[in-house]
Amino acid sequence: MNDFTRESLQCTLNLIPAHIWYADPSISLTFLNERSADYLGLAKDHPLRFGIETGAARDSHLAFLHPDDRETARKVWSECVRSGSAGEVTFRIRNAEGGYRWFLSRAEPRRADDGTLCGWIGINLDIEDRQRAEFYLAQGQRLAHIGSWAFNAGGFEYWSAGLFQIHGLEPGGKAPSTPEYMALVHPDDRDFVAHEMQKMLAEHRGFDFTKRIVRPDGAVRHIRCVGTPVPEGGTFRGFVGTGMDVTEQEQLTQALRKSEEELRQIVDLAPQHVGVLGPNGERLYANRTALAYLGIRLDDWLHATIGSHVHPDDRERLIAFASRLSVGSVPELELRLRKNDGSYRWFLARYNPVCDERGRLLRWYVACTDIEERKRAEERLQQENVALREEIDKTSVFEEIVGTSPADGCACASFQGRSQRFHGTDHGRDRDRQGARRPCDSPALAPLVEGIRRGQLRRDTSRADCLGTVRA
């Protein structure tokens, strides 16, 4: 190569926005383009800027690399020299200020027409931003217990460092083959996972499932796998996805399920009718006592409408009551519920809210207590009170007409006593204090008094009959 050609080539290489270098067959540097030389802080008249061989040792360029990366670079370049084939490696190169940046370095052999190795031409690409992004991604995956992967019909193409760590393997290795991967899956889940893999390859559809793996140390972990197909130009290329370690979540979920099952058993053993509603009144659960009373299954109760098992006369009250529910109280409602034989019984329904630590409503627990006997007792008492009032009224009419005589005083005493107990007063005594004149002293009432004494008129005779006797 003459001087003009050499200078023209160097000028061209200096214009390339990358770090370009030449090396002899032993990969000892012989030329650096301007961008690379400036990055290293080489003097303007340094021989490497002009392609002047300096006879430097083969490993002299390793001094520009980060101490932690030198051994890796030496191994890669030694393999290139031994095999005479291209190679690449990533390492950190020190700049003029003493800082380091990540580069991807690739070397290609230069051969003569007869195939003899003449030297190497290489390019260093600045991948600092990419490395930082990958570092932050790897750290994020490590903290979140997440790893990423790529998969096609031939097996796994890629596993991230986080995925290796999740499976208890050394990061940086080659992605496992399909048999190696299946060996990591828990024996009880292998058939399921194999079926899912065959299904996703056949249907080219996304998937989301959780499986168990067994680490080399024997630890069992729950891994959630989420994948999506990757088309390219309308052609299916494979899947990309993530694997997330959800062992702690699974353990919490199992503990929660166990706790809910224990609570459900307790609720089922309760003698009351208990229903569980969501914050918007949606039905979630009813205990065995309630279902046995209604004579239905849980699924039927869950899909029933509000008021479907309530007495027709109570439904409007129940709907209005439900619309006014609030968290700040424990509201109650009395209503009749239909039994499995078609009869109705009275119940007292108490709505107990359950909230989280922020006060947000989570559930309504509704406890229904049978108050049928109480309702019947109240009805009997009401009827007795009505009868007592009628008896008192009749006694009052009798005394207004005939007053009380020694013979009748004993008979009236029982009525007066019962009246005093009901009203808390003694009317006869008040009239005596006032010195009121008895109606029977009037001569006009003599026929009525005579009729009573003869037994023709009794105390239960109506006012109208008594007055009719007087008029006669």
UniProtKB/TrEMBL annotation:
Residues 421-443 are annotated as: Disordered. InterPro entries: PAC, PAS, PAS-assoc_C, PAS-like_dom_sf, PAS_fold_3, Sensor_kinase/Photoreceptor. It catalyses: ATP + protein L-histidine = ADP + protein N-phospho-L-histidine. Residues 5-84, 259-318 form the PAS domain. It is an enzyme of class 2 (transferase). CDD domains: PAS. SUPFAM superfamilies: PYP-like sensor domain (PAS domain). Pfam families: PAS_3. One of its GO terms (molecular function) is protein histidine kinase activity. Its EC number is 2.7.13.3. Residues 423-440 have a biased composition (Basic and acidic residues). Residues 87-139, 207-258, 331-383 form the PAC domain. Keywords: Kinase, Phosphoprotein, Transferase. This is histidine kinase. It comes from Cupriavidus necator.
